[in-house]
Amino acid sequence: MKISTLHYIATNADAAEQACQGGVRWVQLRVKNQPPAIWKQLALDTQAVCRRYGATLIINDNPALAQEIGADGVHLGKEDLPPDEARAMLGSKFIIGGTANTFVDVQRLAAAGVDYVGLGPFRFTSTKEKLSPILGLAGYAEIMRQCQGAGITLPVIGIGGITLGDVHSLLATGLHGIAVSGAIGNAADPVEEAALFIKELSAVKAI
User: Fold this and answer.
1) Residue 165 class from Cβ within 10 Å (0-12 exposed, 13-18 middle, 19+ buried)?
2) pTM of whole model > 0.85?
3) Which domain holds residue 78?
4) Residue 12 burial (CB < 10 Å; 0-12/13-18/19+)?
5) Contacts of 207 (CB under 8 A, 6+ apart)
6) pLDDT, position 125
7) pLDDT attached to residue 205
């Protein structure tokens, strides 16, 4: 299963559309504090965008909705349904990602059979509630060193306040890729910013 190096965290279909226009092919839909009917409609609208661009759609925090609409997968926070239970519900074809803040978290998620780990936060971000301790570059480097020592080869994605200028140094720690939200969504030209992220990731991966 191929995990993209750039995950874009969108809150609606319009945001997903702009990111996909810029070349993003992995969208995580994050919806907070919305009734189920609105959440479902946002998911369906975003799914239509992803299908049009051939992008992977991951639903955050809601395995049942991911299953209902036939999304590509689900991303689970620490307080969501345990990954092994989500796997039992969804089966082997669904992508399951999990959130981690420590090496122990990564170990637990790997043992539970997730397909990738979102590790963070890199720095403070206003888009995330209940922020875990900030890792910084040193934190990522240490956790990736521990993963290598433990033989954990699961794709690990950095997340949390990441900007374009962080890409090179973050990937140098051993991360598979990054997840961004505000850096693209709040840019003056989200389409262009998405394209710049992809260009930078491709350049670093090619080194």
Assistant:
1) exposed
2) yes
3) 6-206
4) middle
5) none
6) 74
7) 84
